[in-house]
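Thread: Modeling a multi-component assembly for a lab meeting

Hi all, long-time lurker, first post. My supervisor asked me to bring a structural picture of a complex we are working on to next week's group meeting, and I have zero experience with this. I have the sequence lines for every component (297 residues in total). Could someone generate the structure of the whole assembly? Inputs are pasted exactly as I received them:
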Amino acid sequence: MHLALPRMLILAAALATATLACAQAPAAAPAPYATTKVADNVYVFRAGGHQSMFVVTPEGVIATDPIGYVNPQAPAVYLQEIRKITQAPIKYVIYSHHHYDHAAGGKPFKDAGAVFVAHRNAHKRLVALQAPDVVVPDMIVDDSGSSIVLGGMRVDLLYAGNNHSDNSLVMLLPKERIIFTVDWIPIQAVLFRDMADGYIPDWFAGLDRVLAMEWDRMIPGHPGPGGRLGTKDDVRMLKDYMTDVSNAAKQLAAERKCLNDEAMRAVKLPKYEGWGAYSMFLFGNVERFCEYWGRGI
Ligand SMILES: [Zn+2]
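Re: Modeling a multi-component assembly
Sure thing. I ran the full set together rather than chain by chain. Output:
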């Protein structure tokens, strides 16, 4: 009998470990929906791992990405969440960029009368692609940028050049000193896979342009650690990370190892191992910079 006790303890310890592992799992897949007020008239709508900003004014609502690709129900819920706050008309939907996981599912907003706004290159791409579930923008923002002023609120639509796409907008609320910009400035997370549709070295120049803008808080398109918003320090840290990946890849290219998967996989940057998706996507990030330094792509 007295042998059973240590065994039970071991089992209990194993169970505790399993529970811990399970308890960590939901952090990667947060509860489906949340609406959070981040400033007067400014809200974040989250559906799973995707986020969108909306601005409420007495004259109408300025919404952004419908985020209806991963979860096709999300846009309808998004609209319901807005309706819990205001009955004012939905005047605008602004796309952060044209990638479907953020831009798809706008139909309920279109039906509600919204004018869709995006960068010129997003319009061009979406017209060519004709994705069945992505509303083609009605209004175009050029590289020089634009502003929407509605019911006492102002949203500047700024273009910081090519980065994670060739049409990413920075939406700046000058009074609230908040920006909303998506995918190209993750918070304490490495970049997605092999940075498809990404432009190097323009990306770095864009980070400098964002650092020069007047803001304190950044709403990301995917929640930051613990759901926190970003700061300029996060932009600086991302720039450091990209510089470190770039230098490692440049070294591999100099050794003509950029087509060698094993050599690329051997690159480790322990400083960032606590960042989201580090173990999953560091290789892809290295590969992307290797293409730049090794083959000029
Ligand atoms: Zn994207």
